[in-house]
Amino acid sequence: xxxxxxxxxxLFQGILPRIEEKIFKELDKKFEESLEExxxxxxxxxxxxxxxxxxxxxxxxRIIRVEEELKALREAQNLMxxxxxxxxxxxxxxxxxxxxxxxxxxxxxxxxxxxxGFGLAFLGLLMTIYRFW
Length: 133
Known about the structure:
mainly alpha
């Protein structure tokens, strides 16, 4: 029995610690691999999320820039329309002034035509009176 106890003692002192050591090394190795894989997956997921956010931010920035450019274009168009309206008003005013001048000229010519008409009628009357006397 002593042999058996010695054998057990040797087994527990020599072989078992080596087996435990191998098992712990294997477990450590598996744990490290698993941990590395989980950390890699976590970093990849975070990287994907960050890239998506970056793309969203880039897209949002582009949208904002396009909206700002459209706003600037609208303002420029409104300014151009206002300038064109002013020009048309100026041209319209010039035409109104010209119409007034033509109306004044027409009135003057009408007056002269009446004066000439009355003068000719008066001359005709004088000639008629002179002939009959």
